[in-house]
Structure formats: C-alpha cells, structure tokens
Automatic annotation (TrEMBL):
Keywords: ATP-binding, Nucleotide-binding, Transport. It comes from Desulfacinum hydrothermale DSM 13146. The keyword Nucleotide-binding applies. The lineage of its organism: Bacteria, Pseudomonadati, Thermodesulfobacteriota, Syntrophobacteria, Syntrophobacterales. SMART domains: AAA (SM00382). Residues 17-251 form the ABC transporter domain. Belongs to the ABC transporter superfamily. The keyword Transport applies. GO terms for molecular function: ABC-type amino acid transporter activity; ATP binding; ATP hydrolysis activity. Pfam families: ABC_tran. Gene3D superfamilies: P-loop containing nucleotide triphosphate hydrolases. This is General L-amino acid transport system ATP-binding protein. InterPro entries: AAA+_ATPase (IPR003593), ABC_ATPase_HisP-typ (IPR030679), ABC_transporter-like_ATP-bd (IPR003439), ABC_transporter-like_CS (IPR017871), MetN_ABC_transporter-like (IPR050086), P-loop_NTPase (IPR027417).
Length: 255
C-alpha cells in the first residue's frame, strides 16, 4: 500500500463494532479491565501488547468464543447478550483467523471452504464451490483446491483459512496472531493476502506484532497491557512518539 500512515484517517463511516467498558474474569482472575473500542466500517485496527495482556480474550469475546461479564459489545447494531439469535447473527457477520489454522485435516481445501456455506448457509454445492474457488484465487492458491491441508505449507494453510472465512461473507474480520506460527519465509504471503483484503475495504481487527503491517495498513494501533488499553494512536504517532513507558519498553523489545 502506498498510502502514508500520517495521511490515513479513520473512515467517517458507521460504527461496525462497539465495545463499552468491557470486563471479563476467568474465575477470580480479572483479565479484561474496562475496554472501550469503537471500530468504524472499513477501519483497520491493530492490537499489540505483551503475552498475557488479554488480546486474544478481547477478540474472542467479539464473536462469543468467550463470554464477558460486564460491559457491552455491539456488532453492526446487534448487541451480544445471552440471546442465541443475536449470537448466531453476530457470528455470521464476524470472520476469524487464528494462529493455528484450524482446518479439517480429513477434508480437501475445497471441502474445508464449502462446508460452512453448504451446511450452515444452505448454499447449493455448485455455487459454494464457485465462491470457494473465487476466494482461493484471491489468496493465490486456487491450484491447491483438491489437496489436503497436511499437503500444504503453513503459509498456504493460513491463506486457505482466510479464504474459508471470506466464503461466509463476513462484515468484519478478526485475526489473532495469524503469522506467529509461521516460518519467516511464509509470513509475507499471508500478510500480502491481508493487505489485499484491507485494500478492498474489509473492516479488520488484527492482533499482531508485525509492525510493518501495522504501519502500512492500520488506521489505529492499540497497545494492551494487564487487561487494559494503555495507549492508542495512529501508527505514525504510536511508533515515533510512544507516550507510555510500557509502550516504549515493548517497542524496544520487538523492533
Ligand atoms: P494474550 O492473547 O494477550 O497473550 P490472553 O487473552 O490469551 O492474552 O490471556 C490473558 C490472560 O488470561 C493470561 O494470563 C492467560 O493465562 C489467561 N487466560 C486465557 N484464557 C484462559 C482460560 N480459558 N482460563 C483461565 N485463564 C485464561
Ligand atoms: Mg493471544
């Protein structure tokens, strides 16, 4: 992307995800301590921070892989409560890509991609396969459609996982350290697929320590520590002028 970080302003669009004073406990352990976050449509947020700071828990709360105990999460105008209908609606709009790709090993790439659309969305097989091939093309991997995940490299598997999410037509994509389990030479191909997605206007919340990605794609970078958002800024300011000591220490360790 040749767009410069300092000229990239937050899209002036509707709010896609709103998180208000979110708290979560694991038993006695207070893991999220009052998170506030508003993500506009087409906005791209990068979340970074030390291990154990609550990044995964936060994004897992957004599609209810974890339940929060206090505060509000609203996705595309739908509030995440115990209402099963709302949970289903939100899950149908939120795509998620994990560190470990979670593909079904006994299904081909194409079958991995068409499973959800056919069985959950009731899309006819032929149409589901056409859509799957379209997204496999997009992540430059259509020639692998009939292979099994175990026959692919980690980078290819992660691109399949991205394509699989896209087949469900998500309105927002969550990524939880999508490149951290990959060998260095495969990181770029996955980041490139994510950059293309960003260029097409996908709303994205990405937990990553790939600071080059953050600089070139994010509208805002959030730094979490101890279950709180300690600092939030444009990539330019975040990297050039970190304000908090904890942010400075973190950046000095990873850059
Ligand atoms: P991060 O993704 O920033 O590394 P996590 O959200 O995975 O952090 O974890 C935040 C804290 O919550 C860590 O101390 C972790 O050990 C704890 N934690 C995560 N999942 C659970 C769980 N299911 N039960 C109890 N503690 C958990
Ligand atoms: Mg994590």
């Amino acid at each position: 992307m040749n767009e410069k970080a300092e000229t990239r302003s937050r899209p002036d669009s509707e709010v896609m995800v709103e998180i208000v004073d979110l708290h979560k406990w694991f038993g006695e352990f207070h893991v999220l301590k009052g998170i506030n976050l508003k993500v506009h449509k087409q906005e791209r947020i990068v979340i970074c921070g030390p291990s154990g700071s609550g990044k995964s828990t936060l994004i897992r709360c957004i599609n209810r892989l974890e339940e929060h105990q206090k505060g509000r999460i609203v996705v595309d105008g739908i509030e995440l409560t115990n209402n099963v209908k709302n949970i289903e609606k939100i899950r149908s709009e939120v795509g998620m890509v994990f560190q470990h790709f979670n593909l079904f090993p006994h299904l081909t790439v194409l079958e991995n991609l068409t499973l959800g659309p056919i069985w959950v969305r009731k899309v006819p097989r032929k149409e589901a396969e056409e859509t799957a091939l379209y997204y496999l093309e997009k992540v430059h991997i259509a020639e692998q459609a009939h292979k099994y995940p175990g026959q692919l490299s980690g980078g290819q598997q992660q691109r399949v996982a991205i394509a699989r999410s896209l087949c469900m037509s998500p309105k927002v994509m969550l990524f939880d350290e999508p490149t951290s389990a990959l060998d260095p030479e495969m990181i770029k191909e996955v980041l490139d697929a994510m950059i293309e997605l960003a260029q097409e206007g996908m709303t994205m919340i990405v937990v990553t320590h790939e600071m080059g990605f953050a600089r070139s794609v994010a509208h805002r970078v959030l730094f979490m520590d101890g279950g709180q958002v300690v600092e939030e800024n444009t990539p330019e300011e975040f990297f050039n002028n970190p304000r908090h000591e904890r942010t400075k220490l973190f950046l000095s360790q990873i850059l």
